[in-house]
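Notes to self, DUF624 domain-containing protein:
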Amino acid sequence: MKTEPRGIVKLTIDLGYLLVFGLKLQLLWLWFTIRGFVVLGFFPALASCAKLLIRRLTRTDDWHDRFAGSDERFAPLYQEFRNFYQASFWEFNGISYLGAILMALLLVDFAVNRSFLHSTWLQYGLIVLLAMTLIYWLYILTIYARYQLTFWQYFRQAWIISIAKFSNTLAIALGIVLITALIVLFPVLSIIALIPLYLTPLIWFSYRSCLFVEAFISQQDVTNLD
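result:
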């Protein structure tokens, strides 16, 4: 009779599955970023990583099936990645570069004000806008992976969900700090799964915020029906 692994053995095996899956995602992200000549490939490849991660993190089946089952072999994983990459290529590039341009303009305004205008109120206002833009980047990948919206609705939805449960936004920030510390301690992880590692806390906690908002909306709908 075969004995199922338990305790530290099972934890080690599950961690191995996760690292192998992360390595596959890292390779796919790198390949499709290069395929898009980096400038056009970076953001859709990032969105595809997020899509594949959120599909697996939100499943309820066995850990092995989620990260090492027959569907997680490289060929079907490549096909799944490519399908979403192609479907999201132009739209997510537009969403991402619009956000990047906004951040660049705010940084330029911040530098100009600091060097020439010296307006305290403008400086505070720009800091708030920069913080809002950074928070937008923490949520847009999950929003895009989870919902099918119009182009401009993605921006609105990202900001609404980011402030709906701000504790999750803080958890994302803390998670990113912890992942950075982990990579500093074990630099080899940056080669194996840098992108999936950073995406995991971002996806997980932003997804919890999505569920919170969805539950609130459902409750309001039920209340209105009553």
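- The chain is about 85% helix and 0% strand.
- Residues 91 and 150 are 10 Å apart (CA to CA).
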